[in-house]
């Protein structure tokens, strides 16, 4: 049975709302899923970049909490 790893990309929009996209890895396949709107895509390459692009385009969420 393949091991499943999950990570997330979190950004805030201009109104202070948090938006999260989960990146789930099963073997070489990655599934990217938005907790806010349910958007979902399979991505073998650069899933975190696709997550960041979705957050910026769909939710205008560009504030990275990891940057002080």
Question: Any overview of this molecule?
Answer:
With 68 residues, this protein is of the alpha+beta class. It has one domain. 19% of the residues lie in helices and 40% in strands. It has a 4-stranded antiparallel sheet with strand order 1-2-3-4, covered by helices on one side. A hairpin with a 5-residue loop joins strand 1 and strand 2. The chain is elongated, with a radius of gyration of 12 Å. The protein starts with a strand and ends in a 9-residue tail after the last helix.
Which helices and strands, and how do they pair?
Blueprint lengths: L3 E9 L5 E9 L2 E6 L5 E3 L4 H13 L9
Put the structure in a nutshell:
The chain has one helix spanning 47-59, and strands spanning 4-12, 18-26, 29-34, 40-42.
- Shape annotation: elongated
Radius of gyration: 12 Å
Which sequence of SSEs, written as H and E, runs from N to C?
Answer: EEEEH
Total tally of structural domains: 1
How far from one another are the termini?
Answer: 40 Å
**Helix residue percentage:** 10-25%
Give the rounded overall mean pLDDT.
91
So what's the oligomer here? single chain
Strand order of the largest sheet: 1-2-3-4
- Low-pLDDT segments, ≥5 res: none
Topology, number of strands: 4
| Strand composition percent | 35-45%
The chain-level structural class is: alpha+beta
Number of helices: 1
Biggest sheet details: 4 strands, antiparallel
């Amino acid at each position: 049975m393949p091991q499943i790893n999950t990570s997330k990309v979190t950004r805030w929009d201009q109104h202070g709302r948090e938006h999260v996209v989960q990146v789930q890895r099963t073997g070489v396949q990655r599934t990217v899923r938005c907790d806010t709107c349910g958007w979902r895509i399979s991505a073998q390459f650069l899933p975190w970049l696709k997550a960041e692009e979705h957050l910026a385009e769909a939710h205008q969420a560009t504030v990275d909490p990891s940057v002080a």
